[in-house]
Amino acid sequence: MAVSYKEIGLVNSRELFVRAIKGGYAIPAYNFNNMEQLQAIIMACVETNSPVILQVSAGARKYANETLLRYMAEGAVQYAKELGGSIPIVLHLDHGDSYELCVSCIESGFSSVMIDGSHWPYDENVAVAKKVVDYAHKYDVTVEGELGILAGVEDEVKADEHVYTRPEEVEDFVTKTGVDSLAIAIGTSHGAYKFKPGTDPKIRLDILDEIEKRIPGFPIVLHGSSSVPQDLVKIINENGGKLDNAIGIPEDQLRQAAKSAVCKINIDSDGRLAMTAAVRKVFNDKPQEFDPRKYLGPAREALKELYKHKIINVLGSSGKA
Ligand code: G3H
Ligand code: 13P
Ligand code: ZN
Known about the structure:
Layout: H1 14-23, E1 27-31, H2 35-48, E2 52-57, H3 58-64, H4 66-82, E3 89-96, H5 99-107, E4 112-115, H6 122-138, E5 142-147, E6 152-154, E7 157-159, H7 167-177, E8 181-184, H8 205-214, E9 220-222, H9 230-238, H10 251-258, E10 262-267, H11 269-285, H12 292-315
Parallel strand pairs: 1-2, 1-10, 2-3, 3-4, 4-5, 5-8, 8-9, 9-10
Antiparallel strand pairs: 6-7
């Protein structure tokens, strides 16, 4: 039976984006696949009084079971209240690749969906995004579209080069589709290997400027925005891992972007690194340990601290709930 996100205490992203653009900050969009990740996100956002977008990918639905994830998000609303917070929580489908998947998520209580048609020809991207918007808006669910292709691996599609968003297309795209926000490609990419060693790790803030001029005040989203903290990479490598030449987006560039119309910043890989570093360290330091709480507990704590750091020092969303 279909359930409305409003009944479970979630919100869509519309109002949050209006406030974020006016206030010069971005809302954290953190992915979760399991309980510890979700707990860390909620604890971090309550402790910093930040709004939050909980992201679920198709892969997460496959891994954890879609029903379980949806009830976990419902539980998260109550958990935040128990922790003493009244923070706005959005449940968002990350990288939806079909109309049917978006509909299924909306029916199960998602308040926001992404339809990622960036790999399709432009007209197809427009047509599917419009179809999703027409359905989603009937239920007051917000929709994110994407233009441009991020280099690296994106949902099993591999792009060798960035295909930067073409500023001359954005106005036509948002007008024809009616999407509520637009993900753009300006040199960010998914995963832990975003730049080649020895190259200048720079995103194209000039293209962002150009896009903003074409659609002033329209909510912009940045995917692939992990910074790949080198202290975490070091801990992983010192404790049996092998992550060579992992490089992310410098935090000061994300801070700058967050001050503009960029109002949602997606971070997943940094959380994966924080958890992996903590787990590897426990395994190395205490080889006799076999209680999952003894390694997932420290992983959850490390994740919470990472998320708080992002909120306070990079996104600027603390105190904005
Ligand atoms: O953009 C991708 C997110 O990091 C989710 O990754 O598809 O492996 O769950 P995933
Ligand atoms: P990262 O891999 O840089 O964390 O990006 C995550 C993302 O864009 C999720 O949609
Ligand atoms: Zn993404």
